[in-house]
Design brief:
Blueprint: H1 2-33, H2 37-47, E1 52-59, E2 63-70, E3 80-81, E4 86-93, E5 96-102, E6 111-118, E7 121-126, E8 129-134, H3 145-148, E9 151-166, E10 169-184, E11 194-201, E12 207-215, E13 217-225, E14 230-238, H4 243-253, E15 255-257, E16 260-265
Antiparallel strand pairs: 1-2, 2-3, 2-4, 4-5, 5-6, 6-7, 7-9, 8-9, 9-10, 10-11, 11-12, 12-13, 13-14, 14-16, 15-16
Length: about 270
């Protein structure tokens, strides 16, 4: 009888503990489900060192909307805002997060990718897609874009494209192509300068190829990504009859070598 009475006396305490634990778990689930969008904005600001910002973020971490600002970090160039707003939808998966970005200004269909964290980094696997962005957004990224002040449109196409960060290393796979259409710059009164195509082929040694589609300023070159930095060698020259109009620009964008200007990065 004494043992039974002792067991009965412990039941309320045990039930109370389970009730508290259940309430805490419920609160954690609710917190995760309804975490405010501003938490995502803060995390993105810190992860990009202030280079990519979500402003006036509304909704939750999982479903929200915000304006997007490209910036070169504290004390950098004048930030540039993307037209309109961006809506996002995040869904947890067994190995990461599935994401969809609705960008009315720049893509007719949502831009989708899977974010897969791993032991020492993150992998982003992009679904095949197309988008068109204003070249002026590059100005917010700092040098050399804030001096060039490019205008025109950037058409981006991706095929089986993925980005994998492992510590400081970034591996690129798949294919991405950028068509820079009717590009002009504040450094030249000749507008537009031309249209160009930049193609990236991923793999063990990702390569870049730059070619001119048409225009007064002819650009060409190729490069390699070594996991941490880009090594690029190219040249610029004026189309026949445009030499005088583009002479000053050729002096600025590279090292002059006769009629051409040599461009070296990395």
């Amino acid at each position: 009888m004494i043992a039974r009475a002792h067991a009965l006396s412990k039941r309320p305490a045990s039930g109370w503990r389970w009730a508290v634990l259940g309430a805490l778990l419920g609160a954690l689930v609710a917190l995760a489900a309804y975490a405010p969008a501003r938490w995502l904005a803060q995390a993105l600001r810190e992860a990009t060192n202030g280079r990519l910002l979500l402003v006036n973020a509304q909704g939750t971490v999982w479903n929200g909307t915000a304006g997007v600002v490209f910036a070169s970090g504290p004390g950098g160039a004048q930030p540039v805002s993307l037209p309109g707003t961006v809506d996002w939808r995040l869904r947890p998966a067994w190995n990461g997060v599935q994401a969809a970005l609705t960008v009315p200004c720049c893509a007719t269909k949502p831009l989708e990718f899977d974010a897969l964290p791993h032991a020492d980094g993150l992998e982003l696997n992009w679904r095949d897609g197309q988008s068109r962005w204003p070249a002026a957004m590059l100005t917010g990224l700092g040098a050399p874009w804030n001096s060039l002040k490019p205008e025109g449109m950037l058409d981006i196409t991706t095929q089986a494209f993925s980005m994998r960060w492992s510590g400081p290393q970034l591996a690129l796979n798949g294919r991405a192509a950028l068509n820079a259409m009717d590009i002009s710059t504040a450094l030249s009164t000749l507008k537009p300068l031309g249209s160009y195509r930049l193609t990236m082929e991923g793999g063990a040694q990702p390569t870049l190829l730059l070619a001119t589609q048409e225009g007064s300023l002819e650009l060409s070159g190729n490069g390699q990504w070594n996991g941490r930095a880009l090594r690029f060698d190219g040249e610029a020259r004026a189309a026949p009859g445009r030499e005088d109009a583009l002479s000053n620009l050729l002096n600025i964008i590279g090292r002059r070598d006769g009629a051409r200007s040599l461009i070296t990065l990395g």
